[in-house]
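[Meeting: bench + compute handoff]

Bench side (C.D.) handed over the final construct sequence. Compute side (W.E.) agreed to return the predicted structure before the next meeting so the bench team could plan truncations. Sequence as handed over:
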Amino acid sequence: MPSQFAHGGELVARSLAAQGVSTLYTLCGGHVAPIYDGCLNHNIAVIDFRHEQAAAHAADAYARLTRNVGVALVTAGPGVTDAVTGVANAYQARSPMILLGGAAPLKTKGMGALQEMPQVEMFRTFTKASFTIERTEDIPEQMAEAYRHALSGRPGPVFVELPFDVLFNAIDAPEQMPARVVVDPVPPPVSAVQAMFDLLRAAERPLIIAGTQVYWDDAGEALRELTEATAMPVFTNGAGRGALSMAHPHCFKAARSKALRAADVVLLIGTPLDFRLKYGRDDWNPDSKLIQIENDAAELNHNRLAEVAVVADARLVLEALAEGLQGVRFEPWLAQVAEWERARNDKQAAWERLDDVPVNHFRFAAEVQRLVDENTIVIGDGGDIVSACAKVLTVTRAGQWLDPGPLGCLGVGAPFAIAAQHLYPERRVLIVSGDGSFGLNGFEFDTAVRFGLPIVAIVGNDAGWGQIRGPQVQMVGAERAIATSLAPTRYDKVVEALGGYGELVTMPGDIVPALERAFAVGKPACVNVMLDPGGMGKTGASSPYIV
């Protein structure tokens, strides 16, 4: 029996509340105004951004940090197109965000209404689903369907188009909303687990690469138990960083290439064989055996055939392996990987001690490391500077490190940080940003100021798009290196002008005190550190643009 009269925006808000969504990220528009009214009725926080791309990125971060859907709301036409990059990034990063997009009224569809365009068709190539809700009474079920698409199998984004008249129309609302969507774990086939046992028991040099799925399946504890039971070396990738603490003696990051060239069995969990793993070809032992655990069947045997390839829950697989491999140990192999790691770290430590002025990238990273503890969420947003920091920073818990993911999308820093700080006000949120990436969504410090969110950005400022400019100079010379230079802009002053706090740093020893002051001030802050434009090249650790 109906319980009350409600417009479409109220039904959308009820659906979000039923799914446990606590925050909506948006930039306002008349097409979607009823949803704001509904959010007020259900204690859903609404954070409004200065650009729709940033709202989409924030929803992506919310999804990752909560392991639930994150939701962004934008108006029709340019509001929707501005959010495209954020949705594409979430798709590549396997993040279950929902983009709600306004649309012209159904009754005038195809007649040339304001901001009318084929939005649903545009999103179909890089979402898990894209559809229009055409009747107000269908909102509860179709929103639940969007959540199911986003969370099941390989997580990913969904676009839901909400026409103007569907949102403004009022109906007799149902007494109950559909139950919260929860996806049950997929157990591995017994035969596949037995095949894994056989390969690993016969192995001498097995390796675990734990990727994004380990995080989504909350498999960190199972991963720790397996490596401690067997002494298998572990490398983490993507959102898997921190699933096993990088301070754990079995977790490595610097020796991956050498380990892959020597490994005889690789247990690959939720990590696509893309450019980050050299497509499973270069830097791999050609005779190694591959065990591939995925939540996306399309990734199985992609670029390299696996001896065992299965769609299954990562936690269940790791738990089964820990139980079935009792008594199987690989200490000599672990010791070899640890030795390679030490040698690489010794070389890197020399770079981290450089007293160069302007500051070297690795010294910058070493100073940042001194401020990062378990209470700090770190967001990487840049090229060379994030590459250096990823090699230096020790991430000790799941969800502590966020970066764009394999799309390599710059500009996620402030939006990700705003979502993280709003979710976890008791934690410190630090953006490690390049100067180029800061310019893409740096104006969202206005959003952070308006909402009282004391995020801190430390900008590695080499006055250029360093990751592109370095190889460009090598290829064509400095005199022909165009379109990659920036000014040594005072980004700290930009943040000050928006109502935050800023400091300029030119000496390596001043980085930590400046960061301490930035965190202590209790408002959005920017520490702008001048870097050596050729710093990465001097260390031989330059990360060339990958095509």
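W.E. noted at the follow-up: The two ends are 59 Å apart (CA to CA). C.D. will use this when planning the next construct.
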